[in-house]
Amino acid sequence: MSIDIFGNSQNYSHVKSTEEKDYLYPIERTTSGDDNEFIDDEPVKRPVYFFSFILFFGLLTLGFQLARIQIANYSHYQSLASGNSIRVLIVPPNRGLILDQKLNPLVRNVNKHALAVNLAELPRNSKDRDKLFASVEPFLHLSEDEKNQIKKSLITGSGQLVLRTNINRDEMLLLKEKLAKIPSFTVIEKPIRQYNTVSGLGQLLGYLGRVGEEEVKSGDFLPTEEIGRLGLEKVYDADLRGKMGHSTVEVDARGDIVRTVS
């Protein structure tokens, strides 16, 4: 307590020292009536506000980067995800030959171009599948029987379903060009049975036919297989057919094999 030159008493006990005020915000001054009253703000040091701002700015930047990656670059990462992938393919064996007693072939395999369906690439949704069929109709002209074969094979099988065989070279080149961006369909080389034309051998040798629904349900056959239906082809079918193999391959977005893994 002290007295000024006018005889008024003044209390300066609340005034901070010069050294202490260097770390505080300026004192706020309010006026009430005739008396002047000084009120100190809550002492908060400057570094607290500074680091809070840095933290907020860092979190804001991080959030922006995450949003940019997940939203702005979505299509980029989606295209990467739809690129090359690893698949396990069923590899059907080449059917065995039928030879006479002098080891001359009575039935042999000759590679021919064939139109096949990659069942794994087909849409499971019927509406999307119908759209696909409509898009290839101008050059494939799928019959109702072929469409039904595809639908049945989708339910019970995988791999490739051969729709047509003996495609000539001109058809092969045209289809390869048209199907370049449609991985659901492809042109492959398939071994086709070629029978000796000696008179009287037809009934003896027999022929091949597609497996039926009951045979597929038995679990012994895939819907894409062919089995002996008559003659020696039927009698020795198990021996001639052999066993299915598997191959792990890398394919691109079009379904073309890039490399064989194993």
Description:
This protein is of the alpha+beta class. It has 2 domains: 16-82, no CATH class; 86-260, Alpha-Beta Complex (Penicillin-binding protein 2a (Domain 2)). The protein has 10 helices and 13 strands. The strands form 5 sheets. Strands 6, 7, 8 and 9 form a 4-stranded antiparallel β-sheet that branches. A 3-stranded antiparallel β-sheet has the order 5-12-13, with no helix packed on it. Strands 1-2 form a two-stranded antiparallel sheet. The protein is elongated and about 105 Å long. The model is unreliable at 14-33 (pLDDT under 50).
Outline the secondary-structure elements.
Layout: E1 2-3, E2 9-10, H1 18-21, E3 28-32, E4 35-39, H2 46-72, H3 74-81, E5 85-91, E6 98-99, E7 105-118, H4 126-140, H5 144-156, E8 160-167, H6 169-178, E9 185-195, H7 201-205, E10 207-210, H8 213-217, E11 226-230, H9 231-235, H10 237-241, E12 245-251, E13 257-260
Antiparallel strand pairs: 1-2, 3-4, 5-12, 6-7, 7-8, 7-9, 10-11, 12-13
Distance between the termini: 97 Å
CATH superfamily of the largest domain: Penicillin-binding protein 2a (Domain 2)
Helix and strand run: EEHEEHHEEEHHEHEHEHEHHEE
Shape: elongated
Largest sheet: 4 strands, antiparallel
Radius of gyration: 41 Å
**Estimated structural class:** alpha+beta
The assigned CATH architecture of the largest domain is Alpha-Beta Complex
Number of domains: 2
Oligomer: single chain
CATH topology of the largest domain: Penicillin-binding protein 2a (Domain 2)
**Uncertain parts:** 14-33
The CATH C-level class name of the largest domain: Alpha Beta
Strand content: 25-35%
Q: How many β-strands, per DSSP?
A: 13
* Average pLDDT figure: 77
